[in-house]
Amino acid sequence: MALPLPAFVAKRRADWDALQALLGRQRSGALKLEELRTLDTLYRRAAADLAHTQTFYPGTDAHRFLNQLCGQAYAAIYQPPRERWPAVRDFFRRDFPRTLRREKGFVGASAALFCLGLLLGALVVLWEPRGAELLVPAGVRQYVAHGRMWTDDILSVAPPNSVASGIATNNLTVTILTFAMGMLFGLGTLYMLVNNGVHIGAVGAHCIREGMARGFFDFISAHGPVELSIIVIAGGAGLMVGQALIDPGELPRGQALALRGREAVKLVLGCAPFLAFIGVVEGYVSPGSMFPTWVKAGLGLSLGALFWGYLLRAGRAEADGAAVPADSAS
Question: Which residues form a coiled coil (predicted)?
Fold first, then answer.
C-alpha cells in the first residue's frame, strides 16, 4: 500500500536534494571523481521514485519534479556536453517556444491584465479630460498641445544608434523588472502590467482627444506589436514566480520556486534578442517622418505575425514537453 504523498516526499527528499546538489556541482565543474558513483546511485533511486509517483501520484508536483530531476540527471550522466552554439540554437528552436506554449495560461493572464490597464487609462482620459493631468506626463502634454509628437525631436538630439541603444536598455529594464517583481507574490508584476497599460492607454487617448491619433499610431505601429508582446510574456513569467510562492503544492516553497523559476527564466531569456532587435526598429524606424505610416504599420504587423508564428509553431516537430521515461535508467 502506498504511503500518503507528504510522507513519501519526506522519506525520499534527502536523496533528491543530494542528487540536485551533485548535479549543481557537475554543471559548475566542481564534481569530484569519487562523487560520480554517488551521482549514478542517486539517479537510479530517483528513477525508481519517478516510476513510483507515476503509478501512485500521477500529475502531482512531486511527479513533475522527479520527471525534471531525472531528465537532468540522465543528461548529465549519459549524454556528452553540448557545444555552446548548438545549445543556444536548440533553445530558440525548441525550448523557448515550447515553454511559452506550456505556460500559455500565465501569458494569457498577463495579457488580460495589460489590456485592463490600457482600457482603464483610455477610459479615464476620454471621459474626463482632466485625467490626463494625472496620467499623462507633462512633457507629453506640452508637445501634444502644440500639435506635435514628443518623438519628433528624438533624432535631432541624438543619432539613431544612440537612440536605439537607449531604447533597448530601457525596454530591457522594464522587461526584467516586470518579471522580477513576481517575487512579491505576483503583486509587483500585476502592478507593472496594469500600470504600463494605464500609461499607454492614457497617452493614446490624450492624443486622440487632441487630434493627434495619426501621430501616435505612426510612432507605435512599427515596434508596438512585438514590444508589447514581450512585456506581456515577461509578465507571464513573473506571474509564474508569484504562483509558485503562493501555492507551492506538495513541495517546499523554495523548491517549488526553483522549479518554476527555471521555466520562467526561459521566457525572459528567450525574449532578449527580440527585445534588442525591436529597440533598433524603435530607434531607426518609429520616430520622425523618414518612413511613411503605411510602411511602419506594415512592418509592425509583419514583425508581430512572424514573432507569434515562431512562438506558436517552432518545435512542434517533436511532442511538446516530452517526458523522460522512468525506465530510461535501465
Answer: none
Left (φ > 0), alpha (ψ -120 to 50) or beta: where does 24 sit?
A: alpha
Q: What does the pLDDT look like over 62-106, one tens digit per residue?
A: 889 999 999 888 887 776 555 678 888 889 999 999 999 999 999
Burial of 15 (0-12, 13-18, 19+ CB in 10 A): middle
First to last CA, the chain: 25
Instruction: Please state which of the ranges 84-88, 164-168, 252-256 shows the lowest mean pLDDT.
Output: 164-168
Tell me how many degrees the CA angle 264-234-124 measures, rounded to the nearest 5.
145
Contact call for residues 6 and 250 (beta carbons, < 8 A): yes
For CA atoms 176, 181, 186, 189, give the dihedral sign.
Answer: negative
Each residue's pLDDT tens digit, 203-221: 999 999 888 888 899 889 9
Sign of the CA dihedral with 210 first, then 117, 107, and 180 last:
positive
Find all residues with CB under 8 Å of 184, minimum gap 6, and list them: 242
Q: Give the C-alpha separation, 296 to 302, whole Å.
A: 10
Q: What is the CA radius of gyration of the chain?
A: 24
Q: What is the DSSP string of 181-244?
A: GGGTTTHHHHHHHHHHHHHHHHHHHHHHHTT-HHHHHHHHTTTHHHHHHHHHHHHHHHHHHHHH
Give me the helix-helix angle, 293-313 and 213-220, nearest 10°: 40
Asked if residue 314 lies in contact with residue 303, where contact means CB atoms within 8 angstroms, the answer is no
